Here is the input.
Amino acid sequence: MNILVTGGAGFIGSAVIRHLIADTRHEAVNLDKLTYAANPASLAAVAGSPRYRFEQADICDAEALKRIFAQHRPDAVMHLAAESHVDRSVDAPEDFIATNIVGTFRLLTAARAYYESLPEDKRKLFRFHHVSTDEVFGALGPHDAPFCETTPYDPSSPYSASKASADHLVRAWGHTYGLPVLVTNCTNNYGPCQFPEKLIPLVILRALEGAPLPVYGDGSNRRDWLYVEDHARALATVLEKGRPGETYCIGGGTERSNLEIVEAICAILDGMIGKLPNGEGRRSLIRFVKDRPGHDFRYAMAAAKMGAELGWKAEETLETGLPKTVAWYFANRSWWEPLKARYGGERLGLMGKP
Ligand code: NAD
Ligand code: TDX
Here is the structure.
């Protein structure tokens, strides 16, 4: 397949494209606006491949989308482009409405026009795969069962409300216009090439530098973590084998409190490069700071359908994936060092910095 991947210069999109080029015979056209969250260095391994092409464009730009569909004639769309950071959505929701809602609408409109122009045999194979998040389901209490495909929507932040809205639009285009849509909802990802405003890379970089480590509230909020390459494989599997109209929930089944994650990173770094110059372990850098407004307490996902129907399961556990991730940031300073110069160290994480 020739796959149009939106947001392919971001964290998960770049992992998807690296997977498509290295491990499959598909072709990838990367459509990305290159916002602050994009890093073309994440695509260095595929940039020279004849099966990879890049288009800098905004998914809100209807004319650009029309041209890109006509020129590249994709067999499928994997839609990952989004504003993705909850704290930014609290501070400045406008871009989230524009990209996540209006942009998804424009992309659906362009995809539908293109789909309807295809001959019957191509139409049968065409897919619009929308990549979404577990956050659309809201927050779980400590003893609630994990989310699954039938969990009602209950988003609580501007980010999750914008993603929920996009999910509804995608399903409406399936029901109303017969566009063959697939929706996936995944838990928190971690791994190489994640912009260091998100918890895990932010803590790794600050711990490397001996800077204070901000933990929101009391650190008891819980997330279900999935290694990004497991997510990339899951997405390719859904695109290839998923049934149009279906939703697939993806997760690592690896729930931890934020404090447990931060302490684990500290222990990994102490073991890897030694304790701080003052002889203390990096745990001593932890600071409990002002909580995120409306902070969702807990996310967890039952990914049983992915296993039973599509034969997918996560290969990494946190015990294998977290040390790999810490080692990647340690070894790939050239990937993140320029971000500090470009955005200023204080922008790496927007809220509650000590
Ligand atoms: P990211 O912020 O790292 O990357 C987003 C990419 O989209 C960037 O390359 C950016 O330049 C591009 N983009 C943003 N606005 C655009 C626009 N208007 N037009 C074209 N491109 C635009 O995000 P991510 O963490 O890789 O997440 C990718 C997708 O997966 C998102 O849809 C997100 O909601 C979803 N998701 C993320 C996670 C996670 O833990 N990171 C978990 C579940 C689902
Ligand atoms: O400095 C911090 N300190 C802290 O305690 C940061 C940045 C975060 N946190 C907490 C907030 C969350 O409970 O850590 C947890 C994880 O925070 P984020 O990395 O910002 O992720 P989250 O808000 O859980 O959302 C992520 O997972 C779902 C992605 O950013 C979303 O794009 C995805 O949809």
Observations:
- The chain is about 45% helix and 15% strand.
- Confidence is low (pLDDT under 50) at residues 349-354.
- Residues 206 and 308 are 40 Å apart (CA to CA).
- The domain at 2-195+225-256+299-316 is CATH 3.40.50.720 (Rossmann fold).
